[in-house]
Amino acid sequence: MAKNLSFSYSKMGMYKECPQKYKFRYVHMLPEKPKYYFAFGSALHAVMEFIFDPAKLSFPTLPQALEFFDNVWGKTNFEQKGYASAAKELEGYYEGRRIIESYYAANGANFVHPLSTEMKSTLEMDGLNLISILDRVDYLGDGKIKILDYKTGKTIQREPDQLYMYQKVVENSPAVKQLVLAKDPAVKEIKVEQLSFYHLPTLKEMSFERASDKEIFTFWQGVLQIADKIRAGQFEPTPGENQCRWCDYRNICPVFTGREYTGSVGYAPKPVAADTSTLANGSEPANPQDQLSEKIDRCGALEEEVKKLHQEIITLFKQNHFKRHFGKNYQAELIENAHLEFTDKNKVISLLREQGLLAKVLVPTQSTIAHLLEDASVAEAVKAQLRALAKQIEQETLVLHKTDE
Ligand code: SF4
Q1: Same domain for 330 and 369?
Q2: Structurally, how many domains does the chain consist of?
Q3: Does the pTM exceed 0.70?
Q4: Ligand 1 within 6 A of CB of 253
Q5: Is residue 158 assigned to a domain?
Q6: How far is the CA of 245 from the centre of ligand 1 (A)?
Q7: Is the same domain home to 26 and 105?
Q8: Do residue 96 and residue 31 come from a single domain?
Q9: Which among 59, 79, 110 is the end of a domain?
Q10: Residue-number span of the structural domain to which 357 is assigned
Q11: Residue 48 domain-assigned?
Q12: Same domain, yes or no: 336 and 312
């Protein structure tokens, strides 16, 4: 018998985002780089689990919860958490403490023990081994359950697939049923009554009623289709600006390398902080992907340096009222010009129509409209109205020539 496919909401999300990314992560088993928002979220989830541990009779005080957070936070450094710097990590730390303090201020007097926290539920169904972690499950009586999922990102939005997955898992999970039966032995059937997202940074809860059987059926068909595609080895990349920009597998992805990743040496992801500008002996990297990455990085760094130098030269020109200056091999000239920019074309067009001037501009572009301002036959009052619709844009350009040219 074929082995069940291990599956979860996050695996499904990754496959939907890009099947090739899923393949890198779960077939080749290449880990992603640490992400600060996951580290931040998991520290706060740990605190919530600590506060509401159903095995404890009382709830921890705020100083105890903060101390617990400090311990969790202190276990890894900023790089392990995925922060860009120690300063950014410190911001995350203070934000975490602020959230815990405001959570206690708003809810501390009404804490209630849930049925379970951070419950890992595994469900075997239709050839899948479904794994879900339920942040908080409350028993509402009469076999009814409330599921609460903590969110720690900037915003909160309805994620129907996640809700459907929870409903499907909880209503079929023997572990959840066992917990309910321990409280209420007469219960015959478990029903999810309410699903909520709780946004910790703003203390806002977004609640949803249980999904209909039809919604769950459609969702489940989608899950099984994805599972079939995974089993059939269908991992066609679906590139897109958003997903590729932040994807850790770009330097080995066939969309970017033009070659299928085989897991061979030289196509493995680079270490997070590796400096690939040159090898230790000063030679170029041997791998064509690394050579290309190195040249792109070097080119980008040179462009940034040129921009910075241009700005410094322009500043010196202006401070000294120079228009032109010479180096040993090059001369530089500062060209300053200003033009009008018409941002609201509709207003300009209605004004021209009102004044019977539309026929004068074949196509109302920035330059044809600007030409009207030079036209002696256009009344000064109309020109003033046109100018009022424009923004003056100042431009400075530095032009460099070789002196022997
Ligand atoms: S780089 Fe883009 S196409 Fe390639 S795996 Fe990542 S998300 Fe998919």
Answers
A1: yes
A2: 3
A3: no
A4: yes
A5: no
A6: 8
A7: yes
A8: yes
A9: 110
A10: 324-402
A11: yes
A12: no
Same domain, 67 and 83: yes
Are 32 and 103 members of one domain? yes
- Centre of ligand 1 to C-alpha 257, Å, is 11
Give the distance (Å) from ligand 1 centre to CA of residue 22: 9
Residue where a domain stops, chosen among 110, 128, 152: 110
Residue 165: what residue type?
M
Ligand 1 pocket test target in 15, 16, 26, 244 with most atoms within 8 Å of CB: 244
Q: Is residue 168 part of a domain?
A: no
Assess whether the C-beta atom of 252 lies below 6 angstroms from ligand 1: no
Residue in the structure block whose two tokens are 């070789």: 402
Kindly give the distance from the C-alpha atom of residue 249 to the centroid of ligand 1, in angstroms, as a whole number. Answer: 7
Per-residue pLDDT tens digits of the chain, which is 405 residues long: 567 899 999 999 999 999 999 999 999 999 999 999 999 999 999 999 999 998 888 999 999 999 999 999 999 999 999 999 999 999 999 999 999 999 999 999 999 999 999 988 888 889 999 888 899 999 999 999 999 999 998 877 777 788 888 888 888 888 888 889 998 899 988 999 999 999 999 999 998 888 888 999 999 999 999 999 999 999 999 999 888 988 999 989 999 888 888 875 344 444 444 444 444 454 555 566 666 667 777 788 788 878 888 888 888 888 877 788 788 788 888 888 877 787 787 788 888 888 888 777 766 677 777 778 888 888 888 888 888 888 888 878 888 888 765
Both 330 and 392 in one domain: the answer is: yes
**Cβ of 14 below 6 Å from ligand 1:** no
Output the residue whose Cα is nearest ligand 1's atom 7: 244
> Vertex 351, ends 350 and 352: CA angle to 5°?
90
Residue 377 lies in a domain: yes
Atom of ligand 1 nearest to the CA of 247: 6
Q: Residue 392 Cα, ligand 1 centroid: separation in angstroms? A: 43
Q: Is the CB of 47 under 6 A from ligand 1?
A: no
